Amino acid sequence: MPALLTEGEKARVRRHLGYPESTSPVIYAMGMVQPTQPAFLLEAAMNHLTEEAKERVLTLLEVLDTMEGKIIKAVCLLSAQQVGEITLRTNANQNTTDLIRREYDYWGKRLADCLGVTRYPYATHSGNGMNVRVVR
User: Fold this and answer.
1) What count of other Cβ atoms lies within 10 Å of the Cβ of residue 69?
2) Inter-residue contact 88 to 80 (CB < 8 Å)
3) Which listed residue, of 24, 66, 115, 118, carries a Cα 20 to 30 Å from 87's Cα?
């Protein structure tokens, strides 16, 4: 018998993998219908976990919740150059939140791999989005 996740745990999985948190089977973006096939695959995967996989998914959710919390807390560090004797990273290309987000993306990919699904291809929070820059 499959090990079932609670509705709350499923919502956390959807959020961390970038899936819409809506009940509509069709998502509209810029007036166009976007396919939600990956969502059906995710739902099926969440409903057919082994007990071992469920424990792994719950562990990964805890890590992702922690990383998300760190991103929120790190926002106050965006304007600081130095705090007392502590000097923050000075690399212009990577601030604290960039490093935490990279780590968050890593763990999100681990969760997707554990479930055998892809992260939502239309999500923009992790650079996956379908937005394309037009250059003339």
Assistant:
1) 11
2) yes
3) 66
CA–CA distances in Å: residue 27 to residues 11, 14, 22, 108, 125: 17, 15, 9, 22, 17
Instruction: Say how far apart CA 45 and CA 114 lie, in whole Å.
Output: 9
**Tokens 């790190």 sit on residue:** 74
**Do 17 and 60 contact (CB within 8 A), yes or no?**
no
Angle subtended by helix axes 7-16 and 37-46, to nearest 10? 140
DSSP 3: B
Strand, coil or helix: 109? helix
